[in-house]
Amino acid sequence: MAVSRVSFGITMITTLIFSIILPAVHAQSMAPAPAPSNDGTSIDLGIAYVLMLVALVLTYLIHPLDASSYSLF
User: Fold this and answer.
1) Is residue 51 pLDDT above 80, yes or no?
2) pLDDT one-digit tens code per residue, 14-42
3) Which is it for the CA torsion 44, 47, 49, 52, positive or negative?
4) CA dihedral defined by 52, 57, 55, 53, rounded to 10 degrees?
5) This prediction's pTM
6) How far apart are CA 53 and CA 59, in angstroms?
7) Cα 12 from Cα 18, distance rounded (Å)
8) Which residue of 2, 18, 20, 63 shows the fewest CB atoms closer than 10 Å?
9) Is the pLDDT of residue 71 over 60?
């Protein structure tokens, strides 16, 4: 009976030590955060294109009204 109690105690201590140490052995460091896929330049470029298109449309809408007061021929 004493042998089985000592054997059981050694088994429990060994199991406890391994249950504490083994997860630390297999632990991996956290991966770094991924780089941002959009830094805002594409949004700024899209806004710039829209503003240029608005300016172009306004220019061609206003220009014929301006040119109609002049006689070209």
Assistant:
1) yes
2) 888 877 777 666 656 777 878 777 777 88
3) negative
4) -10
5) 0.40
6) 10
7) 10
8) 2
9) no
